[in-house]
Every structure is written in C-alpha cells, then in structure tokens.
Write a structure and sequence with these properties.
Strand order of the largest sheet: 8-13-12-9-10-11
Shape: globular
Largest sheet: 6 strands, mixed
Number of strands: 13
Radius of gyration: 21 Å
Number of helices: 10
Strand content: 25-35%
Order of helices and strands: EHEEHEEEEEHEEEHHHEHEHHH
Helix content: 25-40%
Length: 297
C-alpha cells in the first residue's frame, strides 16, 4: 500500500500521480504499486513539485511495517531509538522588545539566504544578467538530509554567453555509491577514492569561485538544498545567493509546448545538439545553453 499527500503543487502533477494512484481527497492518493514504480513516481514528484510539499508513506519490512519519504516539508524525519518519526519543529520565539546591541565595530556574517529571482526575470523586474554562473551537482540520491554530493561543477559566463572559466571536482564519501547512481553517472567508488577531494575543500573552492554572480541551474532548488546543507554542516557561510531556475523560466514561455520540463526534453525541443550526460560539468554547460536559448525566445 502506498499513500501520497501533496500540497501547493501544480494541477499537472496531480493529474500525473493519478495515472498510478487513486485520488480519494484533494491532494491525497492511495494505491498498490511495486517498489520500482514507487521509486520512479517519487522521483517524478520531487522533480515536478517545484516549491510544493509532498509526503509518501509505503509498506516496508521493518519493525514499524511502513516507511516514508518527505519533500519540502517542515516536519523532519528523525530516528528515535530505531523508530523513524516525523519531528515537528518548534514555533519561532517571538521577542516583544529586543534590545539594541552596541556596535562592536565588526560586521555580522551574512545569513544563508537563497533568493529565487526567476519570477522577477519573467516579469522584467530585473534584466538578463550580464554574467552568471551555471551550476550542477551529482549526488547519491534525492534526499539532502541523508544523501551526499559526489560531484559538483560551476561555469562562469560573460554578457556574450561565452564561457570565461569553470570549476569542477569529484568528492570523497564514506559510504558506497548506490548501484543505480553508478549506472546513471558512471561515477564509481574507486573513481572518488582516486580523484575525489574532501567535501569541505570542495565547497570552500566552490564558494570562492561563485563570487556574487547570479546562479543558473535546472531544478536549481535541488542543487542549492544540498549545497546549503553542506555549508551548514561544515560551518561555512553560503551568504546571500540569487538563483534562476531554468525549469520555472521555461514554464513561463507561452510559446514553448513540451510534454515535460526535463533538461533532455527541453534541449531537444530547442534544437540544442548536446545530450544530458548526468555528470556535473557537461550538465551545467547544458543548463547554461538552455538558459541562453530561452532568453532568445
């Protein structure tokens, strides 16, 4: 048995889920599907939910008899003595009259703020950036709280849409890479061992490379969740970052009719010859070419 609940998601995604499960109430779906279909369905939900929230509960051979996935929700999965629970976050404390602190002469560090300016670009509140950095990462899975970054890349472009410089690296991890990720990316445990660097060094070099340019990526929210989590764990300052998601940008092009908004579908529709390779550097380059092409429409 599988139960899925979604909120703040597009009607198109709701219709897509209905192909496999029955909608018994608005945003609530139940049904029976095998594990392979379940994993593919969850991947599709994460890719197409944008800023929406989703929870999937399914039967499992464990002490509880079930397991679950969550996406973009405030409640966090927590292991409580071998039992997985959803932990409800405490409400923020409200201070009635905060005291004004005296200035010590030192500036406070910038908070980790990710601002999606795709809508502003569509509504022409901002112009097309004179320069930008296209980014992409490869990971061991879809969940930033559990999975790890194994490769990242960033490419800087000037106002003419020309590559200026790039940065890419493989990253060492302690666990073995899942077989499906090896088959998808071609990245192996041996490759990471021989050519990878430590995560802290990789993220530090990435932050140094990014400077203050606007970041562009396909489903960039996915990449930024992993990068933000890494910065938090490593006590590194991500700073204020403005991002443009080529998925949202493409959806706002009224004369662009596609069956889905996957990277490989969009580049094929727009006549970009390269294919998605599921490696960080070529896929970052492909996202940049898509962004440049969308600007021409």
């Amino acid at each position: 048995m599988v139960v899925v609940t979604i909120s703040k998601c597009s009607p198109r995604l709701r219709g897509d889920i209905s192909k496999w499960l029955m909608e018994i109430s608005t945003g609530v779906y139940v049904g029976r599907i095998n594990a392979r279909v379940r994993e593919q369905l969850w991947e599709r939900i994460c890719e197409h939910s944008d800023c929406g929230e989703a929870i999937m509960v399914f039967s499992a051979k464990n002490e509880q008899g079930f397991s679950f996935y969550v996406h973009n929700v405030e409640w966090k999965p927590t292991d409580y003595d071998g039992i997985m629970l959803l932990k409800r976050p405490l409400p923020p404390k409200v201070e009635k009259a905060p005291r004004k602190k005296r200035s010590s002469g030192k500036q406070k560090s910038t908070k980790n703020v990710i601002q999606d300016v795709t809508k502003d670009l569509v509504e022409q509140k901002i112009g097309i950036p004179k320069s930008f950095v296209a980014i992409d990462i490869e990971t061991t899975g879809l969940k930033s709280e559990e999975d790890q970054i194994i490769e990242l890349a960033a490419i800087r472009y000037n106002e003419k849409g020309e590559q200026v410089e790039h940065f890419t690296t493989l990253i060492k991890i302690e666990k073995s890479i899942p077989l499906n990720i090896v088959e998808l990316t071609g990245i192996t445990d041996e490759l990471l061992k021989n050519e990878g660097i430590e995560l802290k060094e990789a993220i530090g070099k990435l932050l140094e490379f990014l400077q203050q340019d606007i970041l562009v990526g396909h489903y960039i929210g996915f990449d930024m969740r992993f990068i933000k989590k890494a910065c938090k764990d490593l006590q590194l300052e991500l700073g204020e970052r403005k991002v443009i998601d080529t998925v949202s940008y493409a959806k706002n092009k009224s004369n662009l009719a596609v069956i889905n908004y996957r990277l490989e579908t969009l580049v094929q529709e727009l006549g970009i010859s390269e294919k998605q390779q599921h490696r960080a550097l070529p896929d970052a380059e492909l996202a940049a070419k898509l962004f440049i092409k969308l600007n021409e429409i």
